[in-house]
Design brief:
Helix 1 packs across helix 2. The longest helix is centred in the C-terminal third of the chain and has 17 residues. By secondary structure, the chain is mostly helical. Helix content is 51%, strand content 0%. It contains 3 helices and no strands. The protein is elongated.
């Protein structure tokens, strides 16, 4: 849920912008941090995982492609 932001990463500045947009109340980003902290919220970063990832394709790549790539280029004279 990006709510108009370019990424899923939520910062105190973004939360303050959203509060102002939705409730027309302005908070400094540092105060937003204190409030979130008092509510028991912690810093978290979204996991960079593709949503459309195919587990079978990933397994095939790990078994077939990765060993070939890991070996490095073949030496030809």
């Amino acid at each position: 849920m990006k709510l108009g932001f370019s990424t899923d990463l939520w910062t105190c500045t973004r939360v303050a912008e959203l509060i102002e947009r939705e409730f027309e109340v302005s908070y400094h980003k540092d105060h937003v941090w204190r409030v979130l902290n008092q509510l028991g919220w912690t810093c978290q970063k979204p996991e960079p995982r593709p949503r459309e990832q195919d587990p079978e394709q990933v397994q095939r790549w790990r078994e077939q492609e990765w060993p070939r790539i890991k070996k490095g280029p073949s030496r030809q004279s």
